[in-house]
Design brief:
Layout: H1 4-22, H2 33-36, H3 45-53, H4 58-62, H5 67-83, H6 90-98, E1 108-117, E2 120-129, H7 144-155, H8 157-160, E3 164-168, H9 174-182, E4 187-192, H10 195-207, E5 213-214, E6 240-245, E7 260-264, H11 273-287, E8 292-298, H12 302-313, E9 317-321, E10 339-346
Parallel strand pairs: 3-4, 3-7, 4-6, 5-6, 7-8
Antiparallel strand pairs: 1-2, 8-10, 9-10
Length: 347
């Protein structure tokens, strides 16, 4: 039997591995060294607990991760145990071998993120494409800046309390799902334009048991809902969740009562940077000085980032960089990625 100190240490390591595994954390940042540092072959319960909190976790069985990721996760664990001369359970070898086969139909997989806000615990699940681009869009895959922006939301729940938030380019909806579950926004509006992405947002909302209102749209992608003066419908007095089809190139009526416009990883395509910044500018102009845009950008291509900054600077907008911890406290983010968060307001 393990000593109490060792048991506590194992529980901490298993919880960390559980959270990393379920959100498909890069295996380069996953280590089994501490878990097995004092393991012996006559303590198979540690291996059983590892399986129970990762590959055989109820969430992993209901929302499976990519086969290759599960295989490589087990391979790393096996390598660690064999290197320490710990006898690996036959069950683990069998499970590993079963994952070595190729599944040509595995186009989509899942990620699950654990939320701990105060004394409350919840999970956010997303289904996403395994391909970086699918059906002509990058929006059916989650990205590092979305995780970073979600962490900002989790660190600033008081700022979002009772506020009306519009997210541009919501993609699979990761940031919004976390904000909806962890922050007491009055209204949260997911938006995107690509039909497949729009569909994926709605699927992920259903998967997370979130009821939303899907706005009807005209052919240009603007909501048909409007009040008599044409400024757009006011939200219900209670907290509500909406999904809006929004085309950044559309020049018509825009929402006019927002507190925050947020978005992440929106500058993949240089040709869309101008329409994006134009949309941000028009939203801030219509919504007034109380509205702030928060745009999270992964610094991949310096030229693309410079183009985005230049487009912002060329308008009546003021940008600043928000200081925050993009990797803390409640989500695992890829630590090799650098994400910059811009705050943008009208002059």
């Amino acid at each position: 039997m393990m000593e109490d100190g060792r048991g506590d240490s194992a529980a901490v390591e298993l919880e960390a591995l559980c959270q990393k595994f379920l959100c498909h954390h890069p295996l380069t940042d996953v280590s089994f060294a501490k878990l097995f540092e004092n393991a012996t072959s006559d303590q198979p319960e540690l291996q059983i607990r590892l399986l129970s909190c990762t590959l055989k976790h109820p969430i992993a069985e209901r929302y499976p991760l990519p086969r290759a990721y599960r295989r490589d996760f087990l391979k790393s664990a096996i390598h660690e145990m064999e290197g320490r001369h710990v006898e690996v359970l036959p069950e683990i070898y069998e499970l590993y071998l079963s994952l070595c086969s190729y599944d040509p139909d595995e186009d989509f997989s899942h990620k699950s993120y654990k939320l701990s806000v105060g004394d409350q615990c919840d999970w956010v699940h997303i289904k996403e494409s395994r391909s970086i681009a699918s059906d002509g869009s990058t929006g059916v895959h989650s990205w590092p800046a979305g995780v970073a922006l979600a962490n900002w939301c989790l660190q600033n729940t008081a700022l979002l309390d009772g506020k009306i938030v519009l997210e541009l380019g919501s993609g699979v909806g990761l940031t919004g799902l976390i904000a909806v579950k962890a922050c007491n926004c009055r209204t949260y509006v997911f938006s995107d334009y690509h039909p497949q992405v729009f569909k994926k947002i709605r699927e992920n909302l259903v998967m997370n048991n979130i009821v939303c209102l899907v706005d009807k749209n005209d052919e240009n992608g603007a909501s048909e809902e409007s009040d008599e003066d044409g400024r757009g419908a006011s939200p219900a007095p209670m907290k509500d969740i909406r999904v809006l089809r929004l085309d950044w190139r559309y020049k018509g009526v825009m929402p006019s009562n927002l507190d925050f416009v947020i978005g992440s990883d929106l500058i993949f395509e240089p040709d869309l940077i101008n329409p994006l910044v134009d949309t941000i500018d028009r939203l801030l102009q219509v919504c007034g000085p109380q509205c702030t845009a928060l745009i999270a950008v992964t610094e991949r291509n310096p030229e693309t980032v410079a183009k985005f900054e230049s487009e912002v600077d060329g308008r009546q907008l003021v940008r600043s960089v928000v200081e925050y911890d993009s990797h803390q406290p409640l989500l695992w983010a890829a630590k090799h990625e650098t994400v910059k968060l811009y705050s943008i307001k009208r002059r």
